[in-house]
Amino acid sequence: MIIELHCHTKEHSPCSRVPAMELAAAVRHRGSDGLVITDHHYMWPTEELAELKRENRLPGNFMILSGQEVLTADFGDVLVYGAARSIPHGMSLAALRKNHPHVALVWAHPYRYGHLPTAVELMNTDFDAIEIVNPHHSEEENYRAVSDWQRWKYRASSGSDIHRIDFSEFYPVQFDCQIGRIEELVACIKAGRISPRIGKYAEH
């Protein structure tokens, strides 16, 4: 399955300009089998996701789930999949892992703004994967991220980090398992059954 793991809606992320209905339609049009909405510190209730799918007349096999993007005290933004509730900002990565041991944690855009993560940070066992390609990295930052991943062989994901309907770069993740529920998505990430879509950065 091809799934977009990082996107934001106008309804629940102040930084986004795309309504959820348009977001879902656009991601499906790009050939994805589903998406996980990752609004900032907000979990979409199951009934709202079901209503979104009905109103958009999406096919039954198109998956819409909710995760969230959480601002931590020490590692910046972290994508959280499988939490039972919205998580406030400001806790450390270690506390996030301790308080939510069963979720999947993905470090979002770690190279943004010229940050150069160390091998120790990238291989921190509290993370289940590292987002290596993101449109909000610069070209140089994406190439550096792919290079580090190829060197150190940690588990990686990719994300389109969608905030606008006219997004030009699309980096969903390839899953080699069938997913219908958030628990299945978490299990697949933790088992490493994911492959990042890295496009032109694969040429590095």
Set out the fold topology.
Blueprint: E1 2-4, H1 20-29, E2 34-37, H2 46-55, E3 63-66, E4 68-71, E5 77-81, H3 93-99, E6 104-107, H4 119-122, E7 129-133, H5 139-152, E8 156-158, E9 173-175, H6 182-190, E10 194-196
Parallel strand pairs: 1-2, 2-3, 6-7, 7-8
Antiparallel strand pairs: 1-9, 4-5, 5-6, 9-10
GO molecular function: 5'-3' DNA exonuclease activity; 5'-3' RNA exonuclease activity
Organism: Geotalea daltonii (strain DSM 22248 / JCM 15807 / FRC-32) (Geobacter daltonii)
Protein name: PolIIIAc domain protein
Q: What can you tell me about this protein's structure?
A:
GO terms for molecular function: 5'-3' DNA exonuclease activity; 5'-3' RNA exonuclease activity. The protein is α/β, with parallel strands linked by helices. It has one domain: Metal-dependent hydrolases (TIM Barrel, Alpha-Beta Barrel), CATH 3.20.20. The protein is built from 6 helices and 10 strands; from the N terminus they run E-H-E-H-E-E-E-H-E-H-E-H-E-E-H-E. The chain has a 5-stranded mixed sheet with strand order 3-2-1-9-10, with helices on both faces. Strands 4-5-6-7-8 form a 5-stranded mixed sheet. Helix 2 links the parallel strand 2 (34-37) and strand 3. The model has no long low-confidence stretch (mean pLDDT 95).
